[in-house]
C-alpha cells in the first residue's frame, strides 16, 4: 500500500512538470511571405495553408502618417485578411516602407510629436483593416538607401519609434486581449548594425527579418557572386553569408528565436561573363533587367541553354550559359532545404521570403512547408 501511495504521489507531482513541458515547447517555425500584389489581388493564388504569416507590401508614410501606397490597397487588404477563413491561425500584417517607400521615416521618427502622430496613424490603420501587426521596413536608419532623407539621429530615433509602437500595441492588447505583432526588416550588412541599437530594438520587437539576400547584384563594378549564400565560399572576395549575418545579429543582442532568415524567390542576372569557373566570381555587366523571378528561371532558363551548378561551400545553386555568357544566382528547393535545416539546427524563429508571386508553381513554398514541419 505504501509503495502504491508513493508511486501515485510521484505521478501527481510529475504532472505539472509534464504539463509545463508540453506548454513550453517551442512554436513551429514561422513561414512568412511578403505579398506584393502589383494591382488587384487574386486571393485564390495564395496557398494560405502553408503560411503562418503574410506581410502585405507596402504602406508608405505621407505627411508623417501611414497610408496605403496605391489605390488598390484598401480593396486588397480585406481580401488578404479573408484568407484566415482557410487558415484561422494565419497572421496578416502590413509592411511599411520598402526600398522605394522609406522617404518619410527619418522625419516621422525625429521628435516625440512626430512619432506620436505616426504611431496614432498606425493604430488606426491596423484597426481599420483588422491586421495582426506592423512590419517596419526602414531601408535604412542613418543611411541614404534609395536617396532618402537620413540623419545621424536616426540610430536613436529608430529605437524610440519602435519602443513607442510597442507601448501602444501593449496598451491595445490590455483592452482587446489580442497581441499585435511588431517586426522589422533588417539589412544584412555590418553597416546596418552600426547605425542601429539592435539590443534595444530586439527587446521591443517580436521578430527581426534578416534580408539575407542581394549580397551580390549586377552593377558593372563588382564581380558575379552568390546573392544569398548560406555560408561564405572561401573564394568569395566579400565573405558575406546568411550564417555570418545571423552570428553578427546574435552578437549584437538579438535572440536566435527572434530571427527570421530571409530567402529570395528570385535571382540576379549578369551578362558578358567569361567562361571561367562557370562564371562564378567573374567580371560581368548588368542586363536591362537583372531581376529574374524563380518562375522565369525555372521555365525559361533551366533546360534552355543554362547549366545548373552547385556551390557546395555556400550551399546554393547558380546557372551559367556558355553560349550567352550569362550568369544567374538564385535559390532553389535544394538550397532551401539546407536553409530550413539551418533554421532548425540554430533555433531560429523561422523564415521569411520575398516575394510570394515570384514562384507561380508553389514549389519553393512547398519545400519550406515540408522542411519546417507543417505539411498538411
List the SSEs and their pairings.
Blueprint: H1 2-24, E1 30-35, E2 53-62, E3 65-68, H2 73-81, E4 91-97, H3 105-108, H4 112-128, E5 133-137, H5 154-176, E6 181-187, H6 190-194, H7 198-204, E7 207-211, H8 242-251, E8 259-264, E9 266-270, E10 291-293, H9 294-301, E11 307-311, E12 316-321, E13 326-329, H10 333-345, E14 350-354, H11 363-371
Parallel strand pairs: 1-2, 1-14, 2-4, 4-5, 5-6, 6-7, 7-8, 8-14
Antiparallel strand pairs: 2-3, 9-10, 9-13, 11-12, 12-13
Helix pairs in contact: 4-5, 5-7, 10-11
Brief sketch in words of this structure:
The chain is of the alpha/beta class and 376 residues long.
What does it look like?
With 376 residues, this protein is α/β, with parallel strands linked by helices. The protein has one domain: Glycosidases (TIM Barrel), CATH 3.20.20.80. The protein has 11 helices and 14 strands. The chain has helices at 2-24, 73-81, 105-108, 112-128, 154-176, 190-194, 198-204, 242-251, 294-301, 333-345, 363-371; strands at 30-35, 53-62, 65-68, 91-97, 133-137, 181-187, 207-211, 259-264, 266-270, 291-293, 307-311, 316-321, 326-329, 350-354. The strands form 2 sheets. An 8-stranded parallel beta barrel has the order 1-2-4-5-6-7-8-14, surrounded by 5 helices. A 5-stranded antiparallel sheet has the order 10-9-13-12-11. 45% of the residues are buried.
Short key terms for the protein model shown above:
376 residues, alpha/beta, TIM Barrel, 8-stranded parallel beta barrel, 5-stranded antiparallel beta sheet, 34% helix, disordered N terminus
